[in-house]
UniProtKB/TrEMBL annotation:
Residues 34-100 form the Importin N-terminal domain. This is Karyopherin transporter. It holds the Pfam family CRM1_repeat_2. The keyword Hydrolase does not apply. It comes from Rhizophlyctis rosea. Belongs to the exportin family.
Length: 1076
């Protein structure tokens, strides 16, 4: 088998075939060995020279496909360095093989897999050779297509692939200049291609050729000049000849979808109107209007399912772009035909929206979002007329009125929108807040994982329902009330139906006016409470309970305005906290915390008819309320009460409430502390340690929501906390001394470590929220550092807690200049010992890695002067650590490292020239080399944004002359009088040339010149780097190559999200209460 790796003799193609067959058909060790051998074969620099004998002599297509893969790699990475005669030889050989294998219909069928690979290889050659070295390619392929129908069919596939490479996949595989050149060339020579395609579509009778041509045309439609579409009879040809044919209807619909989605101004409105009015009758023939599409889709073949999908894509794309064109046609033609077509088109989309296919539903949903938002914008832009007489009769619902002469577009869609409301309710997906769901077996259980796709879909559906409510609030209320009635009379009762209805009710919070919302919500909750009483069985009750909790959590505006109802709801939540059915208690606690956040002030003031604020009533009965809750649920409860306490403005009252909240945990804490004074062995009791852990977690939860006023509780516990920390640390040390490092994995020691971590978390939480920073620095920090740092330094590696690093990072970030003098102490305790834990590989101690670099980042950001005071060897270690971080394989670590370097460079650029010059003289060249390494190595592409920003800074500093000391040792260079610019230019040239010998010298020179010329413009600089990386071919064909564009996509997504939020804030109910 290994004989195929001997490149000193001719290849035994028969043996090669057997190795390939073993890899594809063998089993066990033999198959693995074959795979390794083939991998080594492909990695040989001269492997491409074996392609010709394999292609000519091999008897199996798998060998030939593998050989073409080797050739592809050569074309992508080494093509330009091959001698011209070898390039021509390879090109002519590939063309000839393609012609030989595609000259007859039988050959096309027999060699389909191999031809597919050959076609791709030819396109890779075209990207390198066309048009400059192969200007006759387009005339040649057009000419050969007219001589042979089988060849023509394969040529269509080649043209399709070429179009995809240039117009769809070029961004990450070719430089900007090359892409632009190829696009221009393709457009310039397109007339010949189009004439060929058009001629085939008009005259060809061969079905497979027509299908291939339509597929090729489909790839052209998103970029060809508009004249080819609208100034020929292409649309007519597609609709009349191919739309009704079974073999071509799906590809034709895709072509019409591309055309219908074009937005090109009013010049071609007539053509779009013609497309709609001619296509609709054909669609009615393909799918009769009376068809139950949901059922038909379920029973259909793959091809028929694709038809329904493509009809949905065509109608939503066309109407999304040209609905106004059709509406104008309806207005200008008194006959009902076009109006019926428009109604029929929306009926199709409504029916397709019912199909149980999530991706298809998303397509329809996107169109409904566009339609209802436009109708709402039109309605909200009109002057509104107040109807004050309605206000005199409280029994009448106030409705927004519009001037009687105004004809709103929504009138045209009234029936469609009413049907859409029903569909949106019946297809509503689960919101994020719902924890109780129906599983595949029909049981009601707690959901363990949240589906991000469902959350995004819910957001879109919620948006549509809010618009629909604004467009006709009475119809929305009528439909929801009728559906709830059918739950009550059990004609539509099911977990799923009730869930969807209640999720829909919760989703329109804020979309009604307050009076209508009150009437509607009271009715809904009343019916649901009644349903909860009527239903038997825990599953049924749990389902109704979860829906009650979800809905009340969505209507804080109503709760704030109706104290009695708010109190009733909260008391009902307390009842649910005793319900042991899976998930109900979790949801009760989550709803309670949501209400506490939104209505916090109402709990701490004395309401009318009450003898004391409700929070006092809750706190006096806290044990009774929480007795059945699990510890994690109690912590959520404590956090919720903390939000209420934070709303109490009077400090003495606030401290009294904190004392009431923490009374039970403090009593339990006091009992254990008292026992420990008399018997130090108490802390060896696992149950006691568990209790301590839960007490501390309750404190963390309360502190999280109360914030700075929690000082009264922290002050009460502080010395005990540090004493417990020391005590459990000592116990851990004893266990490790007795049993070795394995002790750190045992339950007892893990319990001790939980206590330590929670103490640290409590300190971190409080200090991050404290408002008197000088007091914290003076009173809390010295004993805390003394207790924590020494323990961390002394512990064996497995017993060092990452939480120490996170706590130190938070303290440094929060206290900043106040703690500057303590930085040497912190670093002395944690720096080198942690570095020794994480620098052996990239895998061990992942939490320590994150905490370590968080601390370095906090010091750099908040205490930079402390870095300047470091001893030289320690600063070198600091810098080496950061460089090691940005070479890390974990993305969050590498990005943190890059971020620290960037901030460090910016900090030094703001210091005195003598300091910055000394820094650059010592470290500039090593940083430059290391950043260039990660930029070009192909494994840290996700850091491209920060890498480019660092390089921009470095080259700008050199180019502008801000660095006034030499960056080199004059005794070590040929030209001691060289400027920094000259030295860096030559250094980078040599570095890249040695690293990438296949690059031509002119390419490297061009790149380095750009680094100096473009460093004032970040976008141009980044594009220049990206082009260079593409030329390296390190990034071609790599699934990670899109990382080079990640920051553009993230920035665009951020801009879009901000614009959407701004627009949504102007629409009542569009932003969820929890997000406001």
């Amino acid at each position: 088998m290994e004989a195929i790796l001997d490149f000193s003799v001719e290849l035994d193609v028969g043996l090669f075939d057997r190795v390939v067959q073993t890899f594809y058909s063998g089993r066990g060790a033999e198959q693995i060995n074959a795979g390794k051998t083939l991998q080594q074969f492909q990695e040989q620099p001269d492997a491409w020279r074996r392609v010709n004998p394999i292609m000519q002599q091999s008897s199996i297509s798998e060998s030939k496909i593998l050989a073409l893969g080797i050739l592809d790699q050569l074309i992508k990475s080494m093509w330009k360095v091959l001698p011209p005669e070898e390039r021509d030889g390879i090109k002519n050989y590939i063309v000839q093989v393609i012609i030989d294998l595609s000259s007859t219909d039988q050959a096309l069928i027999t060699n389909r897999r191999l031809l597919a690979k050959l076609n791709l290889t030819l396109v890779q050659i075209l990207k390198q050779e066309w048009p400059h070295n192969w200007p006759s390619f387009i005339p040649e392929i057009v000419s050969s297509s007219k001589q042979n129908l089988a060849l023509c069919e394969n040529n269509m596939i080649i043209l399709k692939l070429l179009s995809e490479e240039i117009f769809d996949f070029s961004a990450e595989q070719m430089t900007q200049a090359k892409t632009k050149n190829l696009k221009n060339q393709m457009c310039n020579e397109f007339s010949e291609i189009f004439q060929l395609c058009f001629e085939i579509l008009q005259t060809a009778q061969k079905p497979s050729l027509v299908a291939a041509t339509l597929e090729t045309l489909l790839r052209f439609l998103n970029w060809i000049p508009l004249g080819y579409i609208f100034q020929t009879n292409l649309i007519e040809l597609l609709v009349t000849r191919f739309l009704k044919e079974t073999l071509t209807r799906n590809t034709t619909l895709k072509c019409l979808t591309e055309i219908g989605g074009l937005q090109v101004g009013p010049d071609y409105n007539e053509k779009f109107a013609y497309l709609f009015t001619t296509a609709m009758p054909v669609l009615a023939g393909l799918i009769p209007p009376q068809t139950n599409i949901m059922q038909a889709y379920h029973d259909a073949s793959d091809d028929d399912q694709q038809l329904i999908q493509n009809v949905g894509m065509f109608l939503t794309s066309f109407l999304g772009a040209h609905l106004r064109v059709v509406e104008d046609l309806v207005a200008s033609q008194p006959t009902v035909t076009v109006k019926e077509m428009l109604f029929g088109a929306h009926q199709y989309i409504l029916q397709i929206s019912r199909v149980q296919d999530r991706e298809l539903f998303k397509v329809c949903l996107e169109y409904w979002q566009k339609l209802v938002s436009e109708l709402y914008e039109e309605q909200s832009a009109l002057p509104q007329m107040d109807m004050p007489l309605l206000a005199l009769n409280p029994g009448m619902v106030s409705r927004t009125q519009f001037p009687p002469t105004v004809a709103l577009r929504k009138a045209l869609y009234a029936e469609t929108l009413s049907q859409l409301r029903v569909i949106m309710i019946e297809r509503m997906v689960k919101p994020e807040e719902v924890l109780v769901v129906e599983n595949d077996e029909g049981e009601i259980v707690r959901e363990m994982l949240k589906e991000s796709d469902t959350i995004v879909l819910y957001k879109s559906m919620r948006e549509v329902l809010v618009y629909l409510t604004h467009l006709d609030v009475e119809d929305t209320e009528r439909i929801m009330s009728e559906k709830l009635s059918k739950q009550m009379d059990e004609s539509e009762w099911s977990f799923e139906n009730l869930n969807k209805l209640c999720w829909a009710v919760g989703s329109i919070s804020g979309a009604m006016n307050e009076d209508m919302e009150k009437k509607f919500l009271v009715s809904v909750i009343k019916d649901l409470l009644c349903l909860c009483e009527l239903k038997r069985g825990k599953d049924n009750k749990a389902c109704v309970a979860s829906n009650i909790m979800y809905i009340v959590g969505q209507y804080p505006r109503f709760l704030k305005a109706h104290w009695k109802f708010l109190k009733t709801v909260v008391n009902k939540l307390f009842e649910f906290m005793h319900e042991l059915h899976e998930g109900v208690q979790d949801m009760a606690c989550d709803t309670f915390i949501k209400i506490a956040q939104k209505c916090r002030r109402h709990f701490v003031v004395q309401q009318n008819g009450e003898i004391l604020p409700f929070i006092e009533e809750i706190l006096s009965n806290i044990e009774g309320i929480t007795i059945d809750l699990a510890p994690a649920q109690i912590h959520v409860f404590f956090e919720a009460i903390g939000y209420m306490i934070s709303a109490q403005p009077a400090k003495p009252a606030q401290e009294r409430l904190i004392s009431m909240l923490m009374r039970q945990p403090n009593e339990a804490w006091g009992v254990i502390m008292l026992e420990a004074q008399g018997n130090a062995d108490v802390l060896n009791d696992a149950d006691k340690i568990k209790i301590l852990g839960n007490i501390l977690k309750s404190n963390v939860a309360a502190c999280t929501s109360i914030g700075a006023p929690f000082m009264s509780q922290i002050g009460h516990l502080y010395h005990d906390l540090l004493a417990v920390y020391k005590a459990v640390s000592e116990l851990i040390s004893q266990q490790v001394a007795a049993e070795g490092e394995i002790a750190t994995k045992k339950p007892r020691v893990r319990g001790f470590r939980t206590v330590k971590r929670e103490i640290l978390k409590l300190m971190e939480t409080y200090i991050s929220k404290a408002d008197d920073l000088p007091l914290v620095t003076k009173e809390m920090i010295p004993p805390l550092l003394e207790t924590v740092l020494g323990d961390y330094a002394r512990n064996v590696e497995p017993a060092k807690d990452a939480e120490v690093l996170n706590t130190m990072a938070s303290i440094v970030a929060r206290l900043g200049e106040y703690i500057q003098d303590k930085i040497p102490l912190i670093l002395e305790a944690v720096f080198e010992c942690t570095l020794n834990m994480i620098n052996k590989n990239f895998e061990e101690y992942p939490e320590h890695r994150v905490g370590f670099f968080r601390l370095l980042q906090a010091i750099n950001q908040s205490c930079f002067p402390a870095l300047l005071n470091m001893p030289a060897h320690q600063f070198r270690l600091f810098l080496d650590s950061v460089v090691w971080a940005f070479k890390h394989t974990m993305r969050d670590i590498s990005e943190m490292g890059l971020n620290i370097i960037l901030e460090l460079l910016n900090n030094f650029s703001k210091t005195d020239a003598s300091i910055s010059n000394a820094f650059y003289q010592a470290y500039f060249m090593s940083i430059l080399q290391d950043v260039l390494f990660v930029l070009t190595n192909g494994f840290q592409k996700s850091g491209f944004k920060f890498q480019s920003m660092i390089l921009l800074h470095l080259f700008e500093q050199v180019d502008s002359g801000k660095i006034t000391v030499p960056l080199f040792d004059p005794a070590q260079v040929p030209n001691p009088n060289a400027t920094n610019q000259e030295y860096v230019r030559n250094y980078v040239m040599d570095l890249l040339q040695n690293a990438f010998p296949h690059l031509q010298r002119t390419q490297t020179q061009q790149f380095v010149v750009g680094l100096f010329e473009l460093n004032k413009d970040y976008m141009a600089f980044k594009a220049h780097l990206r082009d260079f990386l593409v030329t390296l071919k390190e990034f071609s064909g790599d699934e990670l190559s899109n990382e080079l564009f990640i920051d553009e996509r993230e920035a665009e997504a951020k801009r879009k999200a901000e614009a959407e939020r701004e627009a949504a804030l102007r629409i009542p109910g569009m932003i969820k209460p929890s997000d406001r």
